[in-house]
Structures are given as structure tokens and as C-alpha cells.
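Entry 14. Two folds queued back to back today. First construct below, sequence then C-alpha cells.
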Amino acid sequence: MHKILFVDPDLCTGCRSCEAICSLVHDGASNPRYSRITIETWGEMAVHIPMICQRCIDPVCEQVCPTKARKRDPKTGAVITDDAICVGCESCIYACPYAAPKVHPLTKKTITCDVCQGDPQCLGVCTTGALSYIPAECIAWKKRRHVGQSLAEQYRGILKRI
């Protein structure tokens, strides 16, 4: 049973600690350009969303890779790049609907979250709980609960105005 790195954007403050630890663990330097997780910020709405690989059932990034460098890790289920055969063509970047893969500035190869081989280090630095590592079958439940809570808050706001 594979686990998924789940993001709750309502809890993300945009502190970028996850980016810092990711780059430190993978490259030995605290540099967000080396991170496999990227915080996207929409300032006008004060929204921060950690962007990570969504581990599609049938990954388009894997299908479009001309060298077959994109593949699923059998141990963790993460969709990763095999650096030995990646040519840096960026096809996976353009194909991904979630903008998860990115080019590593030093290697010029694509990188995505590999969930630290099953022990995501970003969880330990996320003080708000915006990131959690849960079994894949729990994702639908978490999303339904999140949507339900959002709708309940909207209805409460409408009822207060009436």
C-alpha cells in the first residue's frame, strides 16, 4: 500500500521550510531552486500552495518522456526521474498538469518529490500540518472532508448576513 504526500493549502503559511529541508536533504544546500517541492504564492489572495507531484495513476510525464527516464519507484510509488538516462528535454514539465517536475539548476535534469524514499523530511518542519503522508485510499476522504468544511463555512457566512 502506497502513501501520498497530501497538501492542505488552507494550513500553509508560505514559510518555505519544506523547500529548505528538501534542498538540504537532497543537495546539501538550503536553496529553494534545488527543492523538489515548490511553494506557489498568490499574494492578492494570500494563498500559499505547496506544489508537488500528484502521483497520477497513469502519469502523462512518464508517457511523453522520450528516454523513459520518468518512472514509478516500486517501493514508494513516487514518479521520479532516472538521472542516468534523462536528457533534460523538459517534455515531462510541459506535459504535467500540476507543474510538478522542474529542472535542477545544476544537473539540468528534471526533479520531482521522491518522498525521501518513504520518509518525507518536509513533514518534520511543517509546523502548521499543511503536509501529511497518508495512505492513498484516504486521499478521497480527506478531500471530501476539506470540501465539506469549506462549504459549511460559506453557508455559515451567508446565514450570518441574513
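Second construct, same run, same settings:
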Amino acid sequence: MLERLQKIIARAGVASRRRAEDLIVAGEVQVNGKVVTELGTKADPEKDSIRVAGRLLRPPERRILLALNKPDGCVSTLSDPGGRPTLRDCLSGVSGRVFPVGRLEYHSTGLILLTNDGDLAARLFAGLGRGLPQTYHVKVKNPFTAAEIETIARRVGPIRPSRPGPNPWYEVRLGSARHDRLRKIIGDMGHLVEKLKRVAIGPIELADLPTGRWRAVSEKELRLLDEALKRLPAGARPSSGERVARRSRRRREFGQEKKTA
């Protein structure tokens, strides 16, 4: 069946639709040996030979979305030049290529999503920027005062105690704010963040998934995620300068992926 090239490329997990359009315009896509640069060109993924940056496109048989519990001291990528542990070390038993959607800091732990679907990844990235909620558990040295809790709630998102004590845990629900901003705000208050763990992204929860293990996201969770993304407000269109910078960054990233593939 004929489909737009950018849709085929995105579904194969090579790139998002927007990034696929950049690759087409840049002359990085071939169909049956001929370079294609016109957006809207269609092809049949079952019959046509499609190459992206010289690599033969092999669309995945099915969409994969995994939830992984990232351990402390693990880099949120699939490879690391410094030889540190990566997410790849936690993916034993996964058939097919997947890549992470977003990152957690080196010493942060918890939920990371991985997929083989570039279009889904792009929607998730956009959704996180437009307010798809993320829930974190944060352990601090010494409890917050009432005024500090009010400040965090105003600047980051709703917060409530989840495990009281001298070194308490709090649950914080972030909208569009990033977790590194949460860590900075808490640090500016004079509190030491001892642990930071992401326990949910939208309707997808970490629950009792063991550290360093993964599970397949269920079809029900996928439907709930799709619904949550559709309910988010539309984001502002980036400026032309931002779009040019984004294209350049994507091309550099794609080139790096090619070298490490």
C-alpha cells in the first residue's frame, strides 16, 4: 500500500515525521535507487527499496513501547564513549532496535520509555514540552517548611509528603517543568536532594517494576497515553531560526547514530 515517505520512515523508528521531512529535503532518502527530495512522495514499504542515509529501511513488524526502571549510575543512552553502564545493559531479551524517549540524569532513577516508533517518540517529546505530567519521588535531607512547599508548588507543580521522617520523601507532579529545575530549586533552598526517582509519565506508571528491568507497555496504557497527548494544548510554532537550528542538530545526531549503528 502506498504511503507518504515520512510516515514510513517514522514508523520504522529512524526518525520523527518532521525529521524525516528534513532528511528527504536534504537528499538523504532514496526509493528504488533514485534520490527523492519532494515532500509528499509516496512508496510501498512492502515492495519498494527505501534507503535513508544509505541504510536500507526495514520497518519494524509492530510498534514497541517499553517501560524501564533506570538504575543509579546508568547513562540514559544506548552507548557511552566513556564505557559507563547504559540502558542497553538493561535490555536483555528485547528483540528489535529501540531508543529512549528523553533522559534522566546519571544519578536519577526510575521510569524511562523506549520505542522503535519515531513518530510516537516525537509526539511524546512534544507532549512533555506541552504539559504531559511526570511524577517524581524526591528524598531530601531535612523536611521542607510550609513556605518551601508552597514555593515548590508554585514554581514546579503539586507536592505532597509520601514518606515522612527525618530524611523524608515527597511526591512532586511536574507539568512542563524539567526535573533538573526541580533539583535546582530544592538546592537553592539549601536542601540536599539525596534521591530523585521518576515514577510515572502521564498514565504510564513504574509501579513495582524492579530496578534495571523492563516491561512492555500494554495496549490499554497506549490508548490512555494517546488520549492524554490529544488533550494537551497545541504548542507554539517555533521561529524560523529555531527550526533551522533544530534541523542542523537532527542531522548531526542522525550522522552520529549512523556511525554507532
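Quick look at the second one. The radius of gyration is 20 Å. Residues 98 and 116 are 4 Å apart (CA to CA).
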